[in-house]
Amino acid sequence: MKVALVSFGHADSAIPMAKAISERLEIDLVFTFSLNMRKNNVVDFENLDLKPGMQDDSICLNAFSQEVRKYVDGKFKLYLFIYKNLKFKSLNNWKFSFQYAKILRSYDIIHFNGKNLNIFQLRVFLPFKKFIYTIHDLENHTGEKAKNIFARKFNHLILKSKSHVVIQNKSDYELVKQIYPKSIKTLHFIPFGNLEIYNQYNTEHIKVPCCDVLLFGRISPYKGIEFFIEAVQKLKTEFPSIQAIIAGSGKFYFDISAIQDDNTFTIYNKFIQSDELVALIKSCKIVVCPYTDATQSGVAMTAFAFNKPVIATETGGFIDVIKDGVNGFLIPIKNSNAIYEKVKILLKNPDLLATMSQNIAEQGKSGEFAWTNIAKNYEEVYKLALMKN
Q: Which of 109, 176, 107 is nearest to 136 (CA)?
């Protein structure tokens, strides 16, 4: 069996997924981007002079960092296909999709990871191929509602296509089973594991302050950053020297003037490069995710790669990966007092903090979030797809 994992972003989870699957069968990972999208967590080719189409080996050598290549370790091939833009009606994109499809015809299974309208162009040129879809988000987040119409329509078409579909969090999986009862036999829950690729990054050259609590990721209304700030301000009364970091690009959706001159808070309001992100996580004690809504648990699984306990709201994929009191805490949504209480418990109990870190390390070796088991589950889905008449 030969599989093409065609990933539209999601690089930090797609690469470990491909590596784990490569231990069981032949797989190539093809990242698909457009000329106006050149950066995605561990993949960054902003400074390369590229033309649309499949990139040659020399371009790929420069597009994928030394850390990525070291992690892959020759276990599978990495490719890069570039569209001019993401416009579905573009005649140029149809031309590129035809070229892309000719390359993909040599594979038994084409596994689309993430969503992109070019998928439907590729399907036109690959009428008899077996497709697998991994859907990351059923809905977009609060503050991103304009994109929800696209997300719903895309997901509806995929879920009605009779292809096998993988959902990565249990709550969405159960919801989809209710909405599409006729598709139950082709629906699968398979999570992703710790985003261990970040362990490849050397951070000795990066100086960041140590902190007690860290909140990282793109600034957006659904992140609940205001509740994190309120909790830290409460914690200052019991822990006067507490340090908090907020790191991520984007415009703050509320007034942060009250904390800009507060030495308790350090704010990195910019795109955080992978090595800098790793340094920030290593330097913290606890990662906090006070989201008002969520789908996946990428932030948690990044923190878990460094055995850092996570305090997160009871929403989306956090419910799947956080075992309350074992590897972190689950808290109610929009509740700064709950953040305050759980952070206080961990800061006052360093032994509990250490135990949670050990639990996270063990979790990555076995169980449903171990990459070896995830790869086995994907192999079973591929076999089912090939058996389909």
A: 176
